[in-house]
Amino acid sequence: MMSGPSYNHTMESPATFLLVGIPGLQSSYLGLAISFSAMYSTALLGNTLIITVICTDSTLQEPMYFFLCVLAAVDIVMASSVVPKMVSIFSSGDSSISFNACFTQMYFIHTATAVETGLLLAMAFDRYVAICKPLHYKRILKPKLMLGLCVTIISRAVISVTPLSWMLSHLPFCGSNVVFHSYCEHMAVAKLVCADPTPTSLYSLICSSIIVGSDTVFIAASYILILRAVFGLSSKNAQRKALSTCGSHVGVMCLFYLPGMASIYIAWLWHDVVPMHTQVLLADLYLIIPPTLNPVIYGIRTKQIRERMKMLLTCFLRKGS
């Protein structure tokens, strides 16, 4: 009996892919380039400020700020993986991307999003301990545990994403090399293979559903317990303070999960109903809006970070003048 063909040996992979951008919105590319450049600049500046403030201020060494610092670093990686190439497509029409660069971009995008959802769960756990078990906060969230959580979150992301990228990169690409997307999104690239892409697409859907689904369940459980504890407080001022602290976390989670889940399931279930430009634009905004607004939300709603950021910017402006 003859064995099946080894596609990656009998068929050459394309040297480059061509990213279309956002199909149907070519007339708006200049405006999109300006908008995405502004959002990317805001994301870089805001997240860099968050990291700088937390790393240089000895009073911001609590677990919450540690997780926020890691989240800011992941946001920079996530935005930097896609926005520079998007802006290049929209502004100059440079749509080509090499085969290896395409799958590297895909790998970083999926890994960053998997790490981010894990960090949001860790931050929800931090708020649960801080509000529901305040007397044991420092005893539970020791530096060793925080480091272990971060290593576990990153390891989970790498272990889940690596097979996905490997499976798709080893399928045969013998037809068109035009990707109808503005970055190397998994489903868009999978449409170009000459073999059946169902296994890798199904793996992507199941894996993302398990990771995001389990994280959202635990996050929801944490906040149910938090709300029970908050409304059990006798002091209205304490209730407002606790709810205000959690409000920023809930806002960040909504920015990440709602467009992300919509993008995944529209691409899988309703791609024939929702216009292509809407699907691509939603996928683009899912990767750039959270990194842009996360530092704004935390900077405005977290008093300690807001004050330190003002001091840092004031010192910088004084030195420059």
TrEMBL record:
GO (cellular component) term, any one: plasma membrane
Keywords tagged on the record: Cell membrane, G-protein coupled receptor, Membrane, Olfaction, Receptor, Sensory transduction, Transducer, Transmembrane, Transmembrane helix
Pfam families registered for this protein in UniProt: 7tm_4
Keyword Transmembrane annotated: yes
G-protein coupled receptors family 1 profile domain mapped to chain residues: 46-298
Main localisation: membrane
Location(s) in or outside the cell: Cell membrane; Membrane
Superkingdom in the source lineage: Eukaryota
Transmembrane segments: 29-53, 65-87, 107-125, 145-168, 202-226, 247-268, 280-300
Membrane topology summary: Multi-pass membrane protein
GO MF assignments: G protein-coupled receptor activity; olfactory receptor activity
Family from the record: Belongs to the G-protein coupled receptor 1 family.
Task performed by this protein: Odorant receptor.
The protein's name: Olfactory receptor
Biological source species: Cricetulus griseus
Gene name for this UniProt entry: LOC100762292
